[in-house]
Amino acid sequence: MKHNSRREFLKTTSLAMAGAAVSSPASAMILDAYPAAHLGVQLWSVRDAMAKDAAGTIAALGKMGYREVEGFGYKDGNMFGLPIKDYAKLLRDNGISSPSCHQPVTLADWNASGNSISDSLKKAIDDMASIGQRYVVAPWMGEQDRPRIAELVKVFNATGEYCRKAGVRFGYHNHNFEYEQRGPDNRLLIEWLLHETDPKLVAMEMDMYWVAYAKHNPIDWFRIYPGRWELCHVKDMAKTEKRETVEVGDGSINFTEIFKHSAKAGLKYYIIELEHYVTTSMEGVKKARAGFMRI
After folding, report:
1. The pLDDT value given to residue 159
2. CATH number, domain at 64?
């Protein structure tokens, strides 16, 4: 879509979160009504439990019915205090796989003299590929990198190329600021990412809570950029002034309507996440999974 027509679409459709995609659904639809073959949980949701007892936490998630997790916190060949091979074995022993993992990618990872990404980032990607992960996802864009978005997208493309050669796919996970802050040419940061990264090298992981928090409608972005959103974070928004995260089904986001457009979006992986808790983190992700199954 041309730049002007895209802007006109954004204007006329009012990306403010309104109507069907903001209010909770009046009726439920069964899980099979949209492609949710891959349902997992971001381990950040239970980071307190993982820090205390990684093995026990993974076992408990398996008993809840989770068959996939998205990791975070890779450092020097280790995950959650375990060598990455042992971490992968722990998952396997509990009938769980890890299709994706969050891994920071910043301007500091660019080796200008060699025109390539840093050796430390290469090692992280290689280690994740070695345990069968399919995606390596950058979870954040630091404030210091945002004014240099034109440089950062080059790093993302280079990371995507290295990932491709390693047999995995690179992705980017959004927060609200990408839908609020603008780059040097007045394009939203999310537009920079979608336009200046190669779709063959960079996938998008839409965090639906943060899109809604920025008062945008995920469905509009699916329509403008079909096929770009291969993964998503599913967490609901409380009907409070603070709009904190809440278990799926207890908030204001109409996932039923949003997921009717999964095929257009390109969604393959649905990942439950929770950042605030009414009870405990483990009870929260258990309840969130049950809420997802009722969508």
Report:
1. 98
2. 3.20.20.150
Supply the pLDDT for residue 112.
75
pLDDT of residue 30: 38
- Tally of residues, the chain: 295
* Per-residue pLDDT, 7: 46
Q: What does the pLDDT look like over 228-284, one tens digit per residue?
A: 999 999 999 999 999 999 999 999 999 999 999 999 999 999 999 999 999 999 999
Write out the residue range of the structural domain in which residue 230 sits: 32-293
Asked if residue 276 lies in contact with residue 237, where contact means CB atoms within 8 angstroms, the answer is no
Q: For residue 179, what are its two tokens?
A: 């839908």
Q: Which residues of the chain have pLDDT under 70?
A: 1-35
- 234-248 burial, b at 16+ Cβ within 10 Å, e below that, comes to bbbbbeeeeebbbbb
36: Cα separation from own chain's centroid: 15
Residue 3 lies in a domain: no
The C-alpha atoms of residue 202 and residue 197 are separated, in whole angstroms, by: 6
Residue 290, SS3 per DSSP: helix
| Contacts of residue 141, Cβ cutoff 8 Å, sequence gap at least 6 | 149, 152, 177, 178, 189
Within a domain: 201: yes
Instruction: Confirm whether 252 is domain-assigned.
Output: yes
Q: Could you tell me which residues come within 8 angstroms of residue 102 by beta carbon, excluding any fewer than 6 positions away?
A: 42, 44, 70, 71, 72, 137, 138, 139, 173
Domain-embedded: residue 27: no
Amino acid, res. 246:
V
Beta bridge partners of 169: 135
Report the first-to-last Cα separation within the chain, whole angstroms: 32
pLDDT at 177: 98
CA distance 53 to 35: 33
- Per the DSSP assignment, residues forming a β-bridge with 83 are 78
